[in-house]
Amino acid sequence: xxWAVFTFSKEGRARLAGVLRALLIAQLIVSLCMxxxxxxxxxxxxxxxxxxxxVTVYLLYGLILLQAYCMKLHYTSGLRLLTILLRxxxxxxxxxxxxxxxxxxxxxxxxxxxxxAACRSTLxxxxxxxSSSLRIGISQYLTEPSWKQLMDTMQVxxxxxxxxxxxxxxxxxxxxxxxxxxxxxxxxxxxxADGKILPPVSPYSCCTPRVLAPCYHDxxxxxxxxxxxxxxxxxxxxxxxxxxxxxxxxxxxxxxxxALQCFNLLVLFFQIVILVLTQLLRTSARDAVLQGDxxxxxxxxxxxxxxxxxxxxxxxxxxxxxxxxxxSVTSACAYACSGAGAGAGAGSLQRRRRRLRTNLRTRTSYPxxx
Length: 370
Hints:
With 370 residues, this protein is mostly helical. The protein has three domains: 1-166 and 243-304, no CATH class; 172-240, no CATH class; 322-370. The protein is 63% helix and 4% strand. The strands form two sheets. It has a two-stranded antiparallel sheet. Strands 2-3 form a two-stranded antiparallel ribbon. Helix 1 packs antiparallel against helix 2 and helix 1 (10-49) packs antiparallel against helix 9. It is rod-shaped. The relative contact order is 0.14. Keywords: Membrane, Transmembrane, Transmembrane helix. InterPro entries: Tetraspanin/Peripherin, Tetraspanin_EC2_sf. It is found in: Membrane. The chain crosses the membrane at residues 20-43, 55-75, 100-119, 257-281. It comes from Manduca sexta.
């Protein structure tokens, strides 16, 4: 028994195919927008992370590009299949090819959610590794030029300071006694047994240009402004960036991840509509062929099987040319498969079908758009 049965004429099937083409184009546009938005929102951050976690950066971009390319293949194959269903509804492999295409498209759309889940878990692991990596970078700020360049570039371009907060520079030992005056009483008071000190000093890259005042980032060298530290001036905190670098990196990546989820949900919604309309187009074209008139009306259904009706075993007088012969052969083939037409006419039927296929190959072309 069939559910949701609709009747479509040839013009109705053409309009249905037009709606399907529009939905396929919308799917492709959404996929391209997903790639462009994710790339633009995370490019600056990814260029910085590439120096630390190159494999993870390539993995995130690779998953997104693979999903978009699969949608492109689904789009091009869908346009060709729609053209064949309209021009050659009597094609013997139309049913199997359409089912395979619908199944593959559904898997591609559902795979977008798997890509989102993979990117989310990868991003979560990346944030944990990034926190420990940046702490190592702070500890080696004055000993490794590569870390100094990376930390300064990150803090200036992302307007951040420290790992989680600016005070990380005061809690992680990064200044050795070799860089300070050992005869200073203040230095000796701050020094530890391991030869490192924890002064309230931050690098100049932590300074923000939004405050029109001196940057109070190093009380050891800016001793002439010692009153500002002793009085607890609000300029001490306002003159440096207040956001940690992990949060500055997480924010654009989270936006890109949210956009990835929304775009993939939209693609999945389009795919559900495409499944319904493709099923109606396929079953309507098949029913028209079985009734003996490829250009006539056909019943389309979404779920179930259409009940059998009386088949026309000869071409209608209005039919002519190759399409009439095709419909006649297809109807006769359905009649013969049912057992009523088996026998002596089977060989003649096969010869007619072979001749017809040869003629159609020379007359019909299947462009991507029609």
